[in-house]
């Protein structure tokens, strides 16, 4: 229950921030260009809070936090008094209307830029991307990628950790190409380029794992299979496991690292496991039945390991000054925007599976997970989602901001607006496309559950 509440809270906070910034972009430019704003709403449905500003605008926070809107004075929606016609949206020049429509997505881009800037100033502790092992027969193995080497660049782009590497590899999904990995030995030496060839790489794959697909296994420091603590009432305590126990084997299979223990437990929900442990010099055999996790359904026993100690040479602190951070944040924003557009294009042509599209449930789960990992993780997710929202809204689909911009641009070229019939047809088509996209996203959400 607490996990669900945490996830819902993360969803509300995330969408609340994104929607508020988006709608405020429309609101601010409308006000600056002399358009009267009647209502500024964050959310849809039943109003929870309503108040009026000194400017006469009605401000609303509604019950469904999946969007929002800015209602402006407009003759097409209701009669406008003669003395207020100069404040009506439809009476403004085409350029002004385009600016108001574009302001929402631009506000989301600006939010992402500011968030990336804040992350750059706060700094991040990053783990150096050291290759721990290479899967035999994989593209990395066939290309001769050596272990105990640090990946410094992907296709010429600097990378600082495995997250950066994933982002750079995602750019090549569905393609037949050669990936250039620049590696340097951990102990020092000259960097060298290794070309890894891939064919139709992860084309149509659902939830692709670029690093794993190449056959690269990131180095992780060993974790002794010693139980640091047990959760009261959990399967570990019920089975007799205690803090300080060293797990020697499970079902007769030797265990040398905590990750092996976790892998076995996760795959054994509801299945009895025979734990052979060492306690105070004696060897004991205990029967433990992993419980089903609340989310995911994998096995859990309620036991914790000791903390991981990373070698000093594999940890780096990345932080920028306020001025440097501006350029770094801009690069991050542009890269994520290009990656988003490229991914959309590849989905349309079938290079990336549409099953990767997520709806509100996926957003909620990712928001909750990122919030649990820390402020920088949540802010990174917020910036990425803000960019996605901006790009989606700029698509030339009627009912979206990009659709309005399309109509106004056609009006500017023709010297007069499209007929009402043509606009209504476009809106119906746009609503059908958005409806299908929402149906697909929600269907994917439910399928993942």
Summarize the topology.
Elements (H helix, E strand, L loop, with lengths): L1 H31 L4 E16 L5 E15 L21 H29 L1 E4 L3 E4 L4 H4 L6 E6 L2 E2 L3 H9 L6 E9 L6 E7 L11 H5 L1 E3 L8 E4 L4 H4 L7 E5 L2 E2 L3 H9 L6 E7 L2 E7 L2 E2 L6 E2 L2 E3 L9 E4 L3 H28 L10 H14 L1 H19 L7 H14 L5 H29 L1
Antiparallel strand pairs: 1-2, 3-18, 4-9, 5-6, 5-7, 7-8, 10-17, 11-12, 11-13, 13-14, 15-16
Helix pairs in contact: 1-2, 1-9, 2-8, 2-10, 2-11, 8-10, 9-10
| Main beta-sheet annotation | 4 strands, antiparallel
Strand content: 15-25%
User: pLDDT average, as an integer?
Assistant: 89
Helix coverage percent: 40-55%
Helix and strand content put the structural class at alpha+beta
Walk across the major sheet and give the strand order: 6-5-7-8
Distance between the termini: 17 Å
Query: Which term fits the overall shape?
Result: globular
* Elements, N to C (H/E): HEEHEEHEEHEEHEEHEEHEEEEEEHHHHH
């Amino acid at each position: 229950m607490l996990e669900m509440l945490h996830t819902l809270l993360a969803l509300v906070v995330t969408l609340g921030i994104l929607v508020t910034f988006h709608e405020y972009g429309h609101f601010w430019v409308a006000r600056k260009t002399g358009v009267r704003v009647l209502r500024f709403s964050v959310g849809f449905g039943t109003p929870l809070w309503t108040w009026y500003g000194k400017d006469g605008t009605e401000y609303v926070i509604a019950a469904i936090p999946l969007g929002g809107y800015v209602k402006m004075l407009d003759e097409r929606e209701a009669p406008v008094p003669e003395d207020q016609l100069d404040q009506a949206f439809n009476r403004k020049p085409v350029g002004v209307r385009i600016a108001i429509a574009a302001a929402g997505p631009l506000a989301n881009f600006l939010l992402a830029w500011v968030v990336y800037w804040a992350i750059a100033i706060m700094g991040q502790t990053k783990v150096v991307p050291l290759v721990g092992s290479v899967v035999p027969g994989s593209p990395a193995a066939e290309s001769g990628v050596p272990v105990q080497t640090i990946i410094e660049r992907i296709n010429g782009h600097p990378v600082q950790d495995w997250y950066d590497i994933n982002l750079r590899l995602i750019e090549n999904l569905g393609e037949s190409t050669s990936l250039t990995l620049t590696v340097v030995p951990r102990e020092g030496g000259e960097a060298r380029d290794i070309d890894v060839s891939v064919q139709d790489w992860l084309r149509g794959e659902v939830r692709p794992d670029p690093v794993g697909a190449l056959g690269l296994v990131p180095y992780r420091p060993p974790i002794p299979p010693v139980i640091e603590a047990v959760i009261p009432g959990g399967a570990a305590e019920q089975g007799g496991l205690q803090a300080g126990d060293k797990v020697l084997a499970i079902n007769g299979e030797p265990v040398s690292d905590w990750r092996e223990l976790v892998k076995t437990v996760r795959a054994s929900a509801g299945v009895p496991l025979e734990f052979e442990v060492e306690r105070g010099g004696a060897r004991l055999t205990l029967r433990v039945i992993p419980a089903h996790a609340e989310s995911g359904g994998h096995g859990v026993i309620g036991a914790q390991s000791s903390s991981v100690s990373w070698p000093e040479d594999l940890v780096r602190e990345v932080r920028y000054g306020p001025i440097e951070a501006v350029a770094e944040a801009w690069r991050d924003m542009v890269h994520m925007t290009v990656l988003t557009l490229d991914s959309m294009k590849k989905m349309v042509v079938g290079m990336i599976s549409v099953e990767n599209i997520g709806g509100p449930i996926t957003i909620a789960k990712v928001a909750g997970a990122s919030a649990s990992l820390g402020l920088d993780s949540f802010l990174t997710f917020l910036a990425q989602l803000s960019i996605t929202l901006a790009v989606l809204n700029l698509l030339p689909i009627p009912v979206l901001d990009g659709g309005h911009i399309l109509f106004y641009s056609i009006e500017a070229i023709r010297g007069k607006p499209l007929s009402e019939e043509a606009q209504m047809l476009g809106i119906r088509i746009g609503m059908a496309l958005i409806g299908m996209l929402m149906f697909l996203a929600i269907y994917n959400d439910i399928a993942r559950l």
